[in-house]
């Protein structure tokens, strides 16, 4: 019977050659991440990188007025804290837990040391960073040019990709509106239309995906662009035996 928690649940950790992983694994600390938990604030010194396994973390930009919007999401395909190995140590965005679960935490000094060895970990992290940059750029374009309904479809599909066994998401319309940077009423209208089409079923605090194919047809091209780039850059990610 497989262990309940395993670093292989994170695709980047799973892709490390056995020798590299065995050097890193004693430093990995399994931590629970609660819904709404802030992993870091803008401008603060980041102390750890997080490799999510079952949790999903949202990277947000918050304006001076307090308004916010998601720039990218990070789940089991990636890592939270790219500034630690890109040389910044701090970032202008915040990281907040969107979906409760677990992650493996790694001290920033250990991450930087291993990254500087210019081995397999560095190669993986740089390719993941490129995929994350694609996601951020596509999110910006999507928010500017596509409807709230299309944005909602994109966001739901990317969330489902990070939770392959889930078909029901625990989240309020207020949370979704905050992620997309739109009014709650706009999310209500978009979700209502998708429900009428038979693609989702919504009840307070829960969104169940009934017809994924329908969501994919209603989504803009942004979902496909992001998914294709992640698959291309991380195509050799495999479960270590």
UniProtKB/TrEMBL annotation:
Gene3D superfamilies: Jelly Rolls (2.60.120.10). Residues 146-213 form the HTH crp-type domain. Keywords: DNA-binding, Transcription, Transcription regulation. Pfam families: cNMP_binding, HTH_Crp_2. InterPro entries: cNMP-bd_dom (IPR000595), cNMP-bd_dom_sf (IPR018490), Env_Response_Regulators (IPR050397), HTH_CRP (IPR012318), RmlC-like_jellyroll (IPR014710), WH_DNA-bd_sf (IPR036390). This is HTH crp-type domain-containing protein. It comes from Rhodoferax lithotrophicus. The lineage of its organism: Bacteria, Pseudomonadati, Pseudomonadota, Betaproteobacteria, Burkholderiales.
């Amino acid at each position: 019977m497989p262990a309940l928690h395993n670093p292989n649940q994170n695709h980047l950790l799973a892709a490390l050659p056995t020798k590299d992983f065995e050097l890193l694994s004693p430093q990995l600390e399994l931590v629970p991440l609660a819904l709404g938990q802030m992993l870091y604030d803008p401008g603060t010194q980041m102390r750890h990188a997080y490799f999510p396994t079952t949790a999903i973390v949202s990277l947000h930009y918050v304006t001076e007025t307090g308004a916010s919007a998601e720039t990218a999401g990070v789940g089991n395909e990636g890592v939270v804290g790219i500034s630690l190995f890109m040389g910044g140590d701090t970032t202008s965005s915040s990281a907040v837990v969107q979906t409760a679960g677990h992650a493996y935490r790694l001290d920033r000094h250990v991450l930087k040391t291993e990254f500087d060895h210019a081995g397999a970990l560095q190669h993986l992290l740089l390719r993941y960073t490129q995929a994350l940059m694609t996601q951020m750029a596509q999110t910006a374009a999507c928010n500017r040019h596509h409807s709230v309904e299309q944005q909602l479809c994109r966001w739901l599909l990317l969330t489902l990709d990070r939770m392959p066994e889930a078909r029901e998401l625990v989240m309020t319309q207020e949370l979704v509106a905050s992620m997309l940077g739109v009014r709650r009423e706009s999310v209500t209208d978009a979700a209502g239309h998708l429900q009428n089409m038979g693609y989702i079923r919504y009840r307070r605090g829960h969104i169940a995906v009934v017809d994924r194919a329908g969501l994919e047809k209603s989504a803009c091209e942004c979902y496909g662009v992001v998914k294709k780039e992640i698959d291309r850059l991380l195509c050799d990610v495999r479960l270590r035996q």
